[in-house]
Amino acid sequence: MGYTAGRDNDNDLQLLEKVDGGAIAGLRIACADNAWSYSATAQTPFTGDVNGYQLAFKAQWRDQLSEKWSASFGPSLTYSSEDWTEDMFGISPSESVRSGLSTYSPDGYFRFGLTGSLREFLYNSPRRWRGLGGLPGAT
Question: 108 Cβ partners below 8 Å, 6+ apart?
């Protein structure tokens, strides 16, 4: 269970229809092999204005560099179906007339991303480690 954001019609998109986000349901499968973990996710919205589905594949390497430091890094690949992409990025003929933008009917698309983190553990509480870290990413 989760939530997917829609498309606001603010600023340059003010003459386009707003696309309401909604609740999503899906399935996630994950496995780990030493320092690497892998996951595959399929999700689809069941409320809101977004239709279609998304598939995501991720791999992540994680290692404890020292007693106080850990690092992770990994690629991801996401596919959004044609319906999902059309709802989020498409411009219908009526929106085109209203906004002056050209009609646009996108196909599904692939998105590639890389993320990484470096964490420093600040102190050890009796129950668990407390950490401070960063998570840079690019898609």
Answer: 79, 80, 81, 82, 84, 85
How many Cα atoms sit within 13 Å of 35 on the Cβ side?
10
Token pair, residue 41, equals: 């996710």
* pLDDT tens column, 7-37: 888 888 888 989 999 999 999 999 999 999 9
| Pairwise CA distance, residues 122 & 34, whole Å | 25
Q: How far, in Å, CA of 49 to CA of 7, rounded?
A: 9
CA distance 105 to 89: 8
Place of tokens 């609740």: 23
d(CA 135, CA 53): 26
Which pTM was predicted?
Answer: 0.76
